[in-house]
Amino acid sequence: MNHVSFLNGSGQSIQAFLTYTFEGGRAMAVFDCEVDLSINWDISRITVFHNSTEITILTGRENLIKNDGQIGKQLLEITAERLKDLLCINLSLEDRMQIDRLAQKNIAQQASPKSLQEQSSYSVIVKYKHIRYQVNFSKQKNSSDIDMVWDISYLRRISLLPEREN
Question: In terms of CB atoms within 10 Å, which of 21, 23, 36, 47 comes out highest?
């Protein structure tokens, strides 16, 4: 659990304990706020729900906090990286394999065999289901210059929400 703070609409600091979970196809960041009635903040819990298509921020009373408002922007900034990691961890095996194939294809198109022989790791960005992922590969120790074998060492979601096609 992390101790965090953010500002309410009046610019006063709200203290909270932040936990992350994943449930039913969505990642959640849960802010358990230290209630302080002296600054007119009686909401004790805020949850940032994120699935593959939207982000929703609700108070413990089910009131919606707008993503583009002052509080919403702060909460997204605090939680964005970890929510992206959670959504990557919970990708299905089929989705991971598809991202792996796209990344391998991307490497083959971008890098020369000579440059790959000289490297022990390589990073590419791929777009899968309108979401960008950074994929880092590490060369297996038993790889030869002729037969290079690469494994995903790191997979990270870059875009928090799906990107629209132009």
Answer: 47
CA nearest neighbour of 138 among 124, 155, 119, 151: 151
Range 142-145 contact pairs with CB under 8 angstroms and sequence separation of 24 or more: 145/117
Instruction: Please tell me the distance from the alpha carbon of residue 12 to that of residue 163, in angstroms, as a whole number.
Output: 34
Widest CA span of the chain, in angstroms?
A: 69
The closest of 131, 125, 129 to 105, measured between CA atoms, is: 125
Residues 24-58: pLDDT tens digits? 778 999 999 988 888 778 889 999 999 877 899 99
Residue 156 and residue 124 in contact, taking contact as beta carbons nearer than 8 Å? no
pTM above 0.90, yes or no: no
Of 10, 28, 8, 27, nearest in space to 18 by CA: 28
Strands 55-59 and 64-65: antiparallel
Interior CA angle at 24 toward 20 and 30, to 5°?
25
d(CA 56, CA 142): 46
